[in-house]
Amino acid sequence: MRYTTATIGLAAFLGSTSAHTVFTTLFINDQNQGDGTCVRMPKQGSTSTYPLEDLSSPDMACGRDGATPVAFTCPADAGSKLTFEFREYADLAYGTGSIDPSHKGPCAVYVKQVSDMATTPAAGAGWFKIWDEGYDEAAGKWCTEKLIDNNGLLSVNLPSALPTGYFLVRPELLALHNADKGDPQFYAGCAQVFVSGTTEEPLDVPANNSVSIPGYVGKGEPSVSFNIWTQPLALPYAIPGPEVFNPVLPQSPVQAKVVQAKQTTGAIPSDCILKNANWCGFEVPSYTDEDGCWASSQKCWDQNSNCYDSAPPSGSANCKVWEAKCKGIQDACAAKNFQGPPVYELKAVEAAVPGAIPGAAEVKGTEVQGGAGAAETVAPAVDVQSSTTPVVVATSVAAPSVAAPSVVAAEPSVSATTEAAAQPTAPTGGAAALVISQDGLCGGTTGQTCEGSEFGGCCSASGHCGTTKLHCGCGWQLSKQGRGEMEL
Ligand SMILES: [Cu+2]
User: Fold this and answer.
1) Which residues surround ligand 1, an ion (CB under 5 A)?
2) Measuring CA to CA, which residue among 188, 43, 25 is closest to residue 96?
3) How far does residue 327's CA lie from ligand 1's centre (Å)?
4) Distance between Cα 87 and ligand 1 center (Å)
């Protein structure tokens, strides 16, 4: 590359003022999806790497402009390995770094199922954390330092029990270098992913794992005001947000449903002949006369404009490739060659992957009923996987605190007369002591029943009211006591 004095000066200027980071590129099972493809990224290049500093802003969900969907949603099977690439310069124009070494802090990945990728808001309730890592005492490194070691690449596995559907997947970095001065700096973006799982029933996320973004972390909390400069560090450092929830399929074989929902929106069209982020180029109509030639030339240039207009800060390299095709058609028309379009080989360009793609850390799982055959193959108690699960990064493991539902043993038989005597105001038998759930929780020690609640009439294994099969089916029924009870 040839540098002019001006570009070197600009690079030095940018380097001194902007050493932040931005999520630009998604990999699925080590396959590069292309810069910006399926990624919600800030639109403005000059500020795309800037941190999110207002913890109450809706931008906390998917970053600046993160409320706006992108055209493409990438398909991935549940359990797939996802890798997120972070860059100091979105288009690599001034270097290939991932984040300034001063930006020490934790990382996390959150997901949220959305019924409609185009219209369901990113900001708000429904997020849960599938992985996090703070300070690794053994290695003496913050997660962001490991990210730098991995050239800006961060890998996680999608939980194996994610249901089929559309998901926003949100990698988050938190730079704590100014946290003690009240200025924590978050970096978050979102990938749009269509997950293929073994069930279409929405996941039953335990209430203590489900959070709103913004809202899951607030100004002044210990996780965002931690002083990383004191020696020794005042460990342990508590990562913002809820405990990790990694729903996994039962280990016994589960028969997958025969009919599964297919991705209906956001797929990359099969007749896409060149892609730049979330733009696709399509072959222009063939022609045999002058009018047709110029019409197709125009169609090519129109697509070129759309390409540049839609290009995110990660770049427009393939718009430039497309431009050459249009120039070829235009030149042919000018040369009165009206049989076309001319054969032109589009050579897509792709930024080099910055280094070896790291493996994903093992995360302790919570077994959930994830498929149609689950009822026959798994005991319905919510179970935490064996503690012998190999742990790659010790600090990344947060044992999900899911209270196992109480399986109701045989109730002592109470005669009608003594029951009536004990609870004279009871309108009906055993459910008398329960109140209708006002917050969607049920069973256990809540004393609440779902019956008649606005959240649905069934109490799930994890103590949530609902109407889906996960709440009502799989052998679980609402007992008279309002607890999830195995149907024998
Ligand atoms: Cu910064």
Assistant:
1) 20
2) 25
3) 41
4) 12
- Look up residue 296 and give its two tokens: 């197709």
CA of 383 to the centre of ligand 1 (A): 41
In this prediction, does ipTM exceed 0.95?
Answer: yes
Q: Domain ranges in the chain? A: 20-266+355-374, 274-334, 406-488
Provide the pLDDT confidence category of residue 253 given band limits of 50, 70 and 90: low
Higher pLDDT residue, 343 or 427? 343
More confident residue, 23 or 435: 23
CA of 438 to the centre of ligand 1 (A): 43
Residue 421 contacts residue 432 (beta carbons within 8 Å): no
Domain 20-266+355-374 belongs to what topology?
Coagulation Factor XIII; Chain A, domain 1 (2.70.50)
For residue 447, report the distance from its CA to the centre of ligand 1, in Å. 48
pLDDT at residue 47 is higher than 60: yes
DSSP three-state, residue 233? coil
Whole-number Å distance between alpha carbons of 153 and 169: 15
Separation between Cα atoms, residue 52 and residue 59, nearest integer Å: 7
Q: What is the pLDDT of residues 288-317, one digit of tens each?
A: 999 999 999 999 999 999 999 999 999 999
CA of 184 to the centre of ligand 1 (A): 10
Ligand 1 center to residue 232 CA distance, Å?
24
Tens of pLDDT, residues 347-405: 999 999 999 999 998 899 999 865 433 333 333 333 333 333 333 333 333 333 333 33
CB proximity list for 259: less than 8 A, separation 6 or greater: none
